[in-house]
Design a protein that fits this description.
- The chain is α/β, with parallel strands linked by helices and 455 residues long.
- The protein has helices spanning 22-39, 44-60, 62-73, 77-101, 135-146, 160-172, 190-195, 208-221, 243-255, 275-287, 307-322, 354-357, 373-381, 396-405, 439-443, and strands spanning 2-6, 13-18, 105-106, 113-120, 123-127, 150-154, 180-182, 199-205, 224-228, 233-237, 265-271, 326-329, 344-347, 364-370, 388-392, 411-414, 433-434, 447-454.
- It folds into two domains: 2-228, 3-Layer(aba) Sandwich (Aldehyde Dehydrogenase, Chain A, domain 1); 233-414, Aldehyde Dehydrogenase, Chain A, domain 2.
- The protein contains 15 helices and 18 strands.
- The strands form four sheets. The chain has a seven-stranded mixed sheet, sandwiched between helices.
- A hairpin with a 6-residue loop joins strand 3 (105-106) and strand 4 (113-120).
- Helix 2 runs antiparallel to helix 4, helix 4 runs parallel beside helix 5 and helix 9 (243-255) packs across helix 10.
- The N and C termini lie far apart (58 Å).
Length: 455
């Protein structure tokens, strides 16, 4: 079997790769288990040194990795370089803080000694997506490796070049052989990896369907899982918002990574008195962004990652318009090759329309008018997803009250774009998954939280 890397800007094949046989994949897990038996005994200082070297490699070769991401996913090289830098930041953050996060916690129980210790589990299977082909991997792997686990990764089938490059980074950084391994297989073979008794946990970032499939199999095998799934992030624009600032942030948040991000803004919930002005400002902001060749430094937005993804987004737009939404910008598939789609804005989007009910994974914004703040919060929570959310208001205390107490999401921001940060936990609720990545919470997802009592 072959895996093909396809350039979404041209439709041309970049490179072809051999898929691993079942025996090769099984052998990789076995070697990772053997590596774990030694790696778990390595001190935090040595693990941290390896992560810091990985950070150095990411920075020194950021241009090469950015080009690879552009060729395989259509991500502009300027964004690819920023992604490599963020991966380096995560490596350094867990190198600096991992030992502190995992220090034993002393508990007074009246015994001679009693405490909680945090021990690595073993081989962790990472099932990773294509949209941030480096960042998604490092935000999972850096804390897992720092905790003393080993990692085998099944990456998305359209980014095999990125997958192998990441393995090489860890190798060059001095991680022992098989502490991090890339397994080139299709999604239909993930169940076999989860069934392997040597795999002790699974981290997946992907679709709701993929999450349910992995959770089902992992539950059957009693394996710990962390699932970071889709999102339909609401951005609430309240009556006292700084409208110009809100529109600028909303446009950026919708078009980040060509809209192909789980935490990209998807639904813009605007109180009616501001609707017309917000429509005009958002159209102006998004219309100013042009698509272009992702290999050029000046390109801000490249193509979508695959033609089928572009076609599904266009289906959502066309069907929503047919159901009564108004098209204000874009919405037309451009002529020529490549998976390009223009920045698109729809307004008067309502329940029952695909752009209201479904996750829209691309550069299309849905404006949903509401009567007041109360209805804005209600509409924001009327979704099966719960990953990110933002609220725009000049009343910071009220914005904080809504973000902290009323919005059903794992990440809530006031007057700014939803972002991931190694210092803060990342994850969602409802159909957006469970568990957390990053921060002290993320590094403890794949450890044995062990009670020790000495009489």
């Amino acid at each position: 079997m072959k895996m093909q890397s396809i350039n979404p800007a041209t439709g041309e094949m970049v490179k072809e790769y051999d898929e691993m046989t079942p025996q090769q994949a099984k052998s990789s897990v076995e070697k990772s288990q053997q590596a774990f038996l030694s790696w778990r005994k390595v001190g935090f200082r040595e693990r941290a040194d390896c992560l810091r070297r990985a950070a150095g490699i990411l920075r020194s070769k950021a241009g090469d990795y950015a080009r690879l991401m552009a060729l395989e996913t259509g991500k502009p090289v300027r964004d690819g370089r920023a992604e490599a830098e963020k991966c380096a930041w995560a490596c350094e953050y867990f190198a600096d803080n991992g030992e502190r996060f995992l220090l034993p916690e002393i508990i007074d129980t009246g015994a001679g000694k009693s405490y909680v210790t945090f021990m690595p589990l073993g081989v962790i299977l990472a099932v990773m997506p294509w949209n941030y082909p480096f960042w998604q991997v490092f935000r999972c792997a850096a804390p897992a490796l720092m905790a003393g686990n080993t990692v085998v990764m099944k990456h998305a089938s359209n980014v095999p070049g990125c997958a192998l490059a990441i393995e090489e980074i860890f190798r060059q950084a001095g991680f022992p052989d098989h502490v991090f391994r890339t397994i080139l297989i299709g999604s239909d073979r993930v169940d076999a990896l989860i069934e392997n008794p040597l795999v002790r946990g699974v981290s997946l970032t992907g679709s709701v369907a993929a999450g349910r499939s992995v959770a089902r199999k992992a539950g059957e095998m009693l394996k710990k899982t962390v699932l970071e799934l889709g999102g339909s992030d609401p951005y609430l624009v309240l009556s006292d918002a700084d409208l110009a600032a809100a529109a600028a942030v909303c446009a950026s948040a919708r078009l980040i990574n060509c809209g192909q991000s789980c935490i990209a803004a998807k639904r813009f919930i605007v109180v009616r008195p501001l609707k017309v002005s917000f429509e005009s400002m958002l159209v102006e902001q998004m219309g100013a962004v042009k698509t272009g060749d992702p290999l050029l430094d000046e390109t801000v937005m490249g193509p979508m990652a695959r033609l089928d993804l572009r076609d599904n987004l266009h289906r959502q737009v066309v069907k929503s318009v047919g159901m009564g939404a108004r098209l204000l910008l874009g919405g037309v598939v451009p002529e020529g090759r490549g998976a390009y789609y223009p920045p698109t804005v729809l307004t008067d989007v309502s329940r029952g329309m695909p752009m209201y009910d479904e996750e829209s994974f691309g550069p299309a914004a849905a404006i949903i008018p509401v009567k007041d703040e109360e209805e804005a919060v209600k509409v924001a929570n009327e979704t099966s997803f719960g990953l990110g959310a933002a609220v725009f208001t000049r009343d910071l205390a009220n914005g904080e009250r809504i973000a902290a107490g009323e919005l059903e999401a794992g990440l809530c921001f006031v007057n700014s774009q939803v972002k991931s940060d190694p210092r803060m936990p990342f994850g969602g609720v409802k159909d957006s998954g469970y568990g957390r990545e990053l921060s002290s919470f993320g590094i403890k997802e794949f450890v044995n939280i062990k009670t020790v009592v000495v009489a």
